[in-house]
């Protein structure tokens, strides 16, 4: 199916200039309620980015066998964590879904077997950043799952299928962390967000940034070969994969901007990316 026919099917969304795409290092769920350098930057972005007609979020926290997209009218706020203050569990992000868009995405991606899903809502990989980006919760949001059975090339190719959405006012956000090893987290002064990094984490973070700025998505897809310490940085891939979804959307002559460039708690990178 060509791009023109896809646009015709999405006639309920007007054509727009190409929307940016984001990868956001979401870090601790506490960022949802804390006023810190990361949440402040998310708030600034929400005030400066073009206002989207809808948001498609790919979160590290929805892994499935097969690929699904939420098609619910009112996605629930999922509190998929434990051991945090009651204030965090009380948070709600009462945004609308966009079932029509979700079904169209599924229909337009038949080669990838995407299916609408009617039970999932928004996990904290999505709502914890969206509540700072768009605190009014007035933009429809749908979420795409990560098929844990697929290789990195599948995710890159699937992401490229979504570029037509950027011309329909849809903001695509990957949410995860480039480096994410909770078993090796080290806190200083009981502050999760204190900038502190193992040497290997800093080195890998710098390698990732260099590859991102060079638009070397092939090396990033084959990330296991990049460094001898890569298994420390990425013991499992679910937090890394959303980065690939964002980078795969980059078109010729688009710019890459790095923001929130910090490694915290020893083994967690908040480094984030804007494509525009």
TrEMBL record:
Swiss-Prot/TrEMBL cofactor(s): Zn(2+)
InterPro entries: Extradiol_dOase_DODA, Xdiol_dOase_suB
Similarity-based family: Belongs to the DODA-type extradiol aromatic ring-opening dioxygenase family.
Family annotation (Pfam families): LigB
Domain Extradiol ring-cleavage dioxygenase class III enzyme subunit B: 51-215
Keyword annotations: Dioxygenase, Metal-binding, Oxidoreductase, Zinc
Keyword check for Lyase: no
Protein name, entry field: 4,5-DOPA dioxygenase extradiol
GO molecular function: ferrous iron binding; oxidoreductase activity, acting on single donors with incorporation of molecular oxygen, incorporation of two atoms of oxygen; zinc ion binding
């Amino acid at each position: 199916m060509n791009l023109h026919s896809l646009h015709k099917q999405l006639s309920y969304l007007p054509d727009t200039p190409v929307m940016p795409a984001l990868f956001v290092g979401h870090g601790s769920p506490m960022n949802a309620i804390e006023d810190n350098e990361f949440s402040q930057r998310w708030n600034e972005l929400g005030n400066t980015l073009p206002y989207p007609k809808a948001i498609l979020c790919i979160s590290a926290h929805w892994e499935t066998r097969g690929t699904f997209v939420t098609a619910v009218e009112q996605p629930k706020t999922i509190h998929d964590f434990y051991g945090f203050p009651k204030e965090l569990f009380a948070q709600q992000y009462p945004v609308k879904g966009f079932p029509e868009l979700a079904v169209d995405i599924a229909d337009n991606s038949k080669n990838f077997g995407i299916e609408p899903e009617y039970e999932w809502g928004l996990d904290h990989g999505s709502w914890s950043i969206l509540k700072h980006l768009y605190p009014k919760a007035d933009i429809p949001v749908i979420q795409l799952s990560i098929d844990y059975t697929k290789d990195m090339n599948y995710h890159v190719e699937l992401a490229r299928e979504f570029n037509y959405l950027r011309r329909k006012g849809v903001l695509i956000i990957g949410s995860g962390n480039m480096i994410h090893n909770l078993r090796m987290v080290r806190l200083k002064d009981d502050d999760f967000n204190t900038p502190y990094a193992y040497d290997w984490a800093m080195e890998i973070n710098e390698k990732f940034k260099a590859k991102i700025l060079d638009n070397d998505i092939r090396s990033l897809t084959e990330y296991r070969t990049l460094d001898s310490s890569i298994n420390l940085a990425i013991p499992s891939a679910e937090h890394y994969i959303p980065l690939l979804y964002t980078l795969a959307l980059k078109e010729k002559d688009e710019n890459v901007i790095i923001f929130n460039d910090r490694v915290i708690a020893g083994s967690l990178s908040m480094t984030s990316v804007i494509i525009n």
